[in-house]
């Protein structure tokens, strides 16, 4: 079994209606995909996220078996 990392936007407070989720081989890949999704789907600029927001989002990235 291989390990990967996942993020589901709906797990983020205030984003419960968003169906997007990502799975990638590394946490870094997930962060890049999260940023891409935030720009396209939510009109957010991930560069504007403060450290508190980044720390919170990091708790939503889960290790999964694939």
TrEMBL record:
Top-level lineage group: Bacteria
Any single Pfam family the record assigns to this protein: DUF1059
Protein known as: DUF1059 domain-containing protein
């Amino acid at each position: 079994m291989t390990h990967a990392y996942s993020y589901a936007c709906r797990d983020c407070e205030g984003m419960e209606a968003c169906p997007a989720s990502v799975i990638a081989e590394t946490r870094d890949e997930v962060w890049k995909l999260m940023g891409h999704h935030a720009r396209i789907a939510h009109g957010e600029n991930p560069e504007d996220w403060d450290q508190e927001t980044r720390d919170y989002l990091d708790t939503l990235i889960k290790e999964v078996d694939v």
